[in-house]
Design brief:
141 residues, alpha/beta, two-stranded parallel ribbon, 3 helices, 7 strands, elongated
């Protein structure tokens, strides 16, 4: 009798399919993820009882955060000087048509002087159609 020894094969776990699946999932989530446009600038808008949402695509957006920093169309202005804000807003107006609506979104804890300065510069630039962004109060009275 001729007995042969059975050779035991080494067990291998192939990680290649697993890595492929992980990369496919990563690509899927990167493509399908949506980002909130206002997530990078945190401001708490003041509340009103009758907030009206009026979204216009060509409007000029000016944000003022709680430290009094200005953001024109989501881009931070270099400093808080009125001359710098004037230049930033006039450059943003050059990209648009004549007299676009201005939406001022100021934090509820923003300095009142920062808001008045923004309104003054809007008047100097000839912007007559502007509104203050607010959120609607959740309490009903």
């Amino acid at each position: 009798m001729n007995f042969r020894q059975h050779v035991i094969d080494d067990v291998e776990v192939s990680l290649t399919p697993l890595i492929d699946v992980v990369f496919l999932l990563l690509i899927f989530f990167m493509i399908t993820t949506t980002f909130d446009r206002d997530a990078k600038i945190k401001i708490n808008l003041p509340t009103t009882q009758s907030a009206v949402s009026e979204a216009q695509a060509e409007s000029l957006e000016l944000l003022i955060d709680s430290q009094g920093r200005y953001y024109v169309d989501g881009l931070e202005v270099l400093n808080n000087k009125p001359e710098t804000l004037f230049r930033a807003m006039s450059q943003a107006l050059d990209k648009r048509g004549n007299n676009p609506p201005l939406v001022i979104s100021a934090d509820a804890h923003a300095n009142y002087q920062a808001v008045v300065t923004a309104m003054d510069i809007a008047g100097r630039l000839g912007l007559t159609n502007f509104s203050m962004a607010t959120t609607q109060s959740k309490r009903k009275r």
